[in-house]
Specification:
single chain; about 400 residues; 12 helices; globular
Length: about 400
């Protein structure tokens, strides 16, 4: 499909471009790329026979190669956007594109997992590790399952035979001016697709799932509806879905020490944190739920500090770190302390992840459940806590 072409990926270690590189290589292209740092996704990239350059500054594409640039490096290198390249990949095959504000990674993974379990050999491009599928991307012979991102409007340019919209919320305040604008964009995208599944029209499934939480029952409802449109019988799909254990960093079990269990979650929006803590509360039983939360993006923290605090108040104790900036420049006066200063929270201000781990290591007691939450590097606290509580 891509034989004879050469692609240079700028930001190849990201959740998105790493998958695009793997699929492009499988579809016949010559592929290489650059990233500033090592990431967990690069192991899969190298295993696919793709050379990777790690260097402080972006490396230009070799002569005659097509450059594809991650959103994170859009201002630092020239080339095609990831949105444009993904649209090309999707346009050549039968595709199921999953989007929405919350749950799109898990829902896309559920669909790909069921197709794989039933021997239908899917291709998939998912923005998170799916341990049961061996990574975040694969090139098969069946349906292409794609996670479409609204954060940079990528999804709105994607063709699809089946579109899935899990839900609609305002999560990216530098991209959209209001929730109404997000809704309008999804409505416009859906109007151009042959088949669409709207999570708002569905009820959570009544299945016993291996992936915990009421939110995953709704994700499963979206997945099963999409699979039916793809020609998969509901009963075999539901039976396969029972065995799906989740995506990396989505209520992911990370071990136990000193009678304390640890979970890690990627949630960064108040609605996601509420869903995570509701599920954690059930898993904890009689034990307490302790949280280390790392806010993600200055803009989101500025606009949603009150809502973030209210969500964290569902825990028994929350430690809040400073903001993980990702792609954003600092905003004067905006730190993680905006969340801490909201009233009604059992909270500690621990600007560094290591400080949060130290506080929770002192407070945690047997029977507790500790959850690290955030889209940055807050998960680095888990080994520190495990070491401390094992001593």
């Amino acid at each position: 499909m891509l034989a004879g072409r050469r692609f240079w990926f700028v930001g190849i270690g990201g959740a998105g471009l790493s998958g695009y590189a793997i699929v492009a290589r499988a579809w016949g292209a010559e592929v290489a790329g650059w990233d500033r740092h090592e990431t967990s996704y690069l192991g899969h990239v190298r295993a696919a026979g793709i050379p990777v350059t790690i260097a402080p500054e972006p490396r230009l594409a070799p002569e005659g190669w097509e450059a594809v640039v991650s959103t994170a490096y859009a201002g630092e290198a020239e080339g095609r956007s990831r949105a444009d390249f993904l649209a090309e990949l999707v346009s050549g095959v039968r595709a199921i594109v999953v989007s929405g504000t919350h749950g799109k990674t898990t829902t896309a993974a559920m669909i790909a997992f069921v197709l794989d379990s039933l021997g239908l050999d899917p291709s998939f491009l998912i923005g998170g590790e799916v341990p049961q599928l061996g990574g975040n991307a694969r090139a098969g012979t069946g349906w292409l399952v794609v996670e479409g991102d609204e954060s940079d409007r990528t999804v709105f340019g994607l063709p699809a035979e089946i579109g899935v919209i899990t839900n609609v919320d305002l999560d990216h305040h530098t991209t959209f001016g209001s929730r109404a604008e997000v809704e309008e964009e999804f409505e416009r995208w859906a109007a151009g697709l042959p088949h669409v599944v709207w999570g708002r029209d569905l009820e959570p499934v009544a299945l016993e799932l291996s992936a915990p939480g009421e939110h995953n029952r709704l994700n499963a409802a979206c997945a099963l509806a999409a699979l039916e449109l793809a020609g998969v019988g509901r009963e075999p799909a539901a039976e396969a879905l029972r065995e799906f254990r989740g995506v990396g960093r989505r209520l992911e079990p990370r071990g136990e020490a000193g009678g304390v269990r640890f979970l890690d979650d990627y949630g960064h929006h108040p609605a996601e944190i509420e869903a995570t803590l509701a599920a954690a509360r059930k898993l904890a039983g009689e034990g307490r739920v302790l949280v280390l939360f790392q806010p993600h993006l200055y803009s989101r923290t500025l606009y949603l500090a009150t809502e973030l605090a209210a969500a964290l108040a569902l825990s028994d104790l929350a430690c809040v770190t400073d903001i993980y900036p990702a792609r954003e420049e600092p905003i004067e006066g905006v730190t993680g302390k905006l969340v801490v200063d909201r009233p009604g929270m059992p909270v500690a201000w621990t600007p560094k992840v290591e400080q949060g781990a130290e506080v929770l290591g002192v407070r945690a007691r047997p029977g507790d459940l500790v959850v690290t939450i955030g889209a940055g590097d807050v998960d680095e606290a888990v080994p520190l806590l495990l070491q401390r509580l094992s001593a």
